[in-house]
Amino acid sequence: MCSLRQSFQFTRVRARPPPVRTGRRTGGRVAVSSETMNTKNQTGVIALLLLIVLAASLVSCARREPILEPVAEPLDLPTRYPPAQHIVAIGDLHGDLEATRAALRLAGAIDELDRWVGGTMVIVQTGDQLDRGDDELEILDLLDALAAQAQAAGGAMHVLNGNHELMNVKQDLRYVTLGGFLDFLPTPVADANAVDPEVVVDAVHERLKACRPGHPLAKRLIERNVVTIVGDTVFAHGGVLPHVVEYGIERLNQETRAWIRADRPYPPDILLAEDGPVWSRHYSEDPDVEDCRLLDMALISLGARRMVIGHTVQDEGISPACEDKVWRIDVGLARHYGGSPAVLELQNGRARVIVEEVRQQ
């Protein structure tokens, strides 16, 4: 059973999984996203909102998960895709539509009207579209539309689920903004800064319902992988360790989708572990010799050359580690972090970081 202090710490550091898991490395303390509610007359709103979210988080982290047999159905979505001449990877978006558009334009994927102009380009977005910003649904709409347009043009848009997507499905809404809750009301709210506490309670309830496995928001996350491989490059949100490879990334993807569809009562245990593929920071926080050894083992087992990950903001921008075998692409481009858009281009076997100054040349 999780204690109140374990489940909900009032700090502004990065998220970590509920402490029912153990791992070699922690990811920081849990944050509360209440920066959007900063007016004096919203004290009651904040208290009610956080109380409901806390209750949902306690239910989520207190539930014990049984060991389930692997799913036996045929794969419903490929994990591996053929090599592509031109791949661009984009990191965490966190509810910022303008930053998302800026990154896609930087990649050369869309025009000023948000239409696909990337041709046969393959875009991989490594998860965390949700939380920390108000534009979540607009981002999902844009990415879904571009996926269809890219496919029609001979390209592709692979969008992964990160820890924040899976937190929402697991009813952990600690990082949802006020606007992110109000989006789920049947009637739009004219002024979020003047909303009644009762309306906020209704909004939280509606989002909780929408995020449950098999419900509307969760359904939008089904046609995604947690780990995908394009040619010789592995893409994941946090990183793939050898024990995840041993478990089977196809199995992991399939079981995760089964849970999101509500065909399985719980997510696979390995998915939300602190050293699992959406929470691990082994490769993104100053990896040491042992971390790089684990990376080598994982890549060799997968027959891959490199890994591309998000999840941990890189203050110095997109950067490689472990002799360029892992690229960390979360640059904190969302408004919540105040970073600038940057993307990673993989073309003709070479990796290149694209920032605004480079694209303008």
Describe the structure.
The protein has 361 residues and is of the alpha/beta class. The protein has two domains: 1-64 and 172-211, no CATH class; 73-164 and 213-360, Metallo-dependent phosphatases (Purple Acid Phosphatase, chain A, domain 2, 4-Layer Sandwich). 33% of the residues lie in helices and 12% in strands. The chain is built from twelve helices and eleven strands. It has helices at residues 4-7, 43-62, 97-107, 136-152, 163-169, 178-182, 197-211, 216-219, 242-247, 249-260, 289-302, 356-360, and strands at 80-81, 86-90, 122-125, 156-159, 227-230, 233-236, 306-309, 319-321, 326-328, 342-347, 350-355. It has a six-stranded mixed β-sheet with strand order 1-5-6-7-9-8. The protein has a five-stranded mixed β-sheet with strand order 4-3-2-10-11. The radius of gyration is 20 Å and the shape is globular.
Task: Outline the fold blueprint.
Blueprint: H1 4-7, H2 43-62, E1 80-81, E2 86-90, H3 97-107, E3 122-125, H4 136-152, E4 156-159, H5 163-169, H6 178-182, H7 197-211, H8 216-219, E5 227-230, E6 233-236, H9 242-247, H10 249-260, H11 289-302, E7 306-309, E8 319-321, E9 326-328, E10 342-347, E11 350-355, H12 356-360
Parallel strand pairs: 1-5, 2-3, 3-4, 6-7, 7-9
Antiparallel strand pairs: 2-10, 5-6, 8-9, 10-11
CATH superfamily of the largest domain: Metallo-dependent phosphatases
Strand order of the largest sheet: 1-5-6-7-9-8
**Name of the CATH architecture of the largest domain:** 4-Layer Sandwich
Overall mean pLDDT: 86
Secondary structure: helix percent? 25-40%
- Helical region count? 12
Number of domains: 2
Main sheet specs: 6 strands, mixed
How many angstroms separate the termini? 56 Å
Radius of gyration: 20 Å
Order of helices and strands: HHEEHEHEHHHHEEHHHEEEEEH
Structural class by sheet pairing and helices: alpha/beta
CATH class group of the largest domain: Alpha Beta
Give the number of DSSP strands: 11
Shape: globular
> What is CATH's topology name of the largest domain?
Purple Acid Phosphatase, chain A, domain 2
Uncertain segments are: 1-13, 19-40, 64-72
Task: Estimate the strand proportion.
Answer: 5-15%
Oligomer, anyone? single chain
